Amino acid sequence: SQTIHQWPATLVQPVGSPLSLECTVEGTSNPNLYWYRQAAGRGLQLLFYSVGIGQISSEVPQNLSASRPQDRQFILSSKKLLLSDSGFYLCAWSSSPLGQLNTEAFFGQGTRLTVV
Amino acid sequence: RKEVEQDPGPFNVPEGATVAFNCTYSNSASQSFFWYRQDCRKEPKLLMSVYSSGNEDGRFTAQLNRASQYISLLIRDSKLSDSATYLCVVNIYNQGGKLIFGQGTELSVKP
Prior knowledge:
A: seven-stranded mixed sheet, four-stranded antiparallel sheet, globular, B: six-stranded mixed sheet
């Protein structure tokens, strides 16, 4: 069966420090991968999505970047965190969309980031 | 205009009530539709997919109107355990299967 791992669960970082959040998927190949952010009391905002190794689409201009060095690994990074980067970061995967409709997304348990 | 818009909520209802959530989407290339449930401080989890002909799963009924680009979720005989935020999701197939979430509608079921 497929599983998704995301870590750490909680993170407190000072303004200006770097960030690296990692997400890995097991039990599937060539997944679509996503990074979402949810600010307190707000909806999920799509930050990045990837349909393959090295293929990253950025949805909103921001202080963050994403990379996909391996098929089932997705990394969210920042060189210098801002206070506004605080939020609940969620990694998700879904099956390749080719010929597959109604494929759901599966979420990791999320990282709660507080920038102080 | 947001790609996916939901009723702002919150909805506060008594146990046993019927509650309906509405959602509209703007991208006509949207191919797949879902309702997710998110409990407080947890990750979203799939509640049900939404099929063109409408579908039902126990107390939950989902409807899709492609012409109006409208999705709905009906919860009958609501339970205390239904309290959560309900997220409308569309899959934009021609953009690599991008999943777009609505902002969510919070439901609070009271005794």
